[in-house]
Amino acid sequence: MRVRTVPIKLLTASLIFSLTAVSVFSQPSAERLAEEMVSKNAEWLSQIERLSMTMQLNEGGMIPDMTTMYVKRVDEYGNPYLDLENDETMEMDFTAMAGSVDQIVKLIHGAESISEERLNGVNTYKVFVNDRELLESLDQNEMEMEDMEIVFDTATFWIESGTMYVRKVFMEQTVDGDQNMSMEMNLDDYQVFSGYPVPMKMTMKIGGMASQFSEEEIAEARQAMRQMEEQLSQMPEAQRQAIERQIKPQMEQFERMLESDEGMTMNITITDVKVNE
After folding, report:
1. pLDDT for position 14
2. Number of domains comprising the chain
3. Is there a single domain that holds both residue 147 and residue 229?
4. What pTM does this model have?
């Protein structure tokens, strides 16, 4: 019996070609990823005309629940999207925070790089954008802060392959020309309502906040916290404990932010979703 041998170089070349081919076919181009996102969005909204979401910010905190109403509209290209029913009301716009599909599609087309990355046990496409003009052209009103000039330097977001759910958003900003801030949002526990996926839990962390305050403002904030603690100490025990349960975690986090600039974290929970009501 005659045994054929395969040259090592040929075997190695074949292996490299196979691995390269797998990588090319599994990692989509910007065009294909954008098309898939648009297609998924149309599928998600096929049964939706109106949508309301009630959000709770920092469970047990002092801020009341907020309900945001959306209606489905169609853009100039015939693509459906969710829009605030009344953009003049004080509502938290989830789509602006997590990245609305039309914005994500524009960012995908203008991405510096698209790569594959495993994120918390999930296969994702990591999209990195550093085009300042593109970032500035998007509607960032929900993320702007009063009396601050904010320039968005980079945006990175992770899209779960297959489902196309946005799993994470990270943005870097320059404030007032020379101060750096960052915003990171993680979106978890997706549930589907009449075909539309909603992340029921979101965690937002803002870094670099302490650098935005002057020494005088920090001193005033610390003084206000001491006054609040003194007022609490004079309250009846039951009342004091009830209030501390609500505000103590936020006070401790604010104090740590002033001391170490560890960032401010907000936990957002969707408590209710209504479709076509």
Report:
1. 43
2. 2
3. no
4. 0.71
Pair 75, 109 in one domain: yes
Is 46 in the same domain as 175? yes
DSSP-based helix, strand, coil % in the chain, nearest 5: 35, 35, 30
Q: Determine how β-strand 66-74 pairs with β-strand 179-193.
A: unpaired
Q: What does the alpha-carbon distance between residue 95 and residue 45 come to, in Å, rounded to a whole number?
A: 14
Instruction: Output the pLDDT for position 142.
Output: 43
Cα–Cα distance between 186 and 258 in angstroms, integer?
24
My answer on whether 166 and 102 are in the same domain is yes
Same-domain pairing of 170 and 254: no
Instruction: Report the distance separating Cα 254 and Cα 260, nearest Å.
Output: 10
Q: What is the pLDDT of residues 97-123, one digit of tens each?
A: 555 788 889 999 999 999 999 999 999
Regions in the chain scoring below 50 on pLDDT: 1-25, 141-145
CA distance 219 to 238: 30
The reply to whether 189 and 220 lie within a common domain is no
Q: Is the dihedral of CA 12, 17, 23, 26 positive or negative?
A: negative
* Bridge partners, 182 (sequence order): 172, 207
In this structure, are 201 and 225 located in the same domain?
Answer: no
Which pLDDT score, from 0 to 100, does residue 264 have? 74
What residue numbers bound the domain in which 59 lies?
27-209+263-275
DSSP 8-state class, residue 150: E
Could you tell me if 54 and 179 lie in one domain? yes
Tokens 């936020």 belong to 250
Q: Which two tokens stand for residue 52?
A: 């309301």
Q: What is the 3-class SS of 201-222, one letter each residue? A: EEEEEEECCHHHCCHHHHHHHH
Q: Which amino acid is at 230?
A: E
Q: Which two tokens stand for residue 67?
A: 């309900």
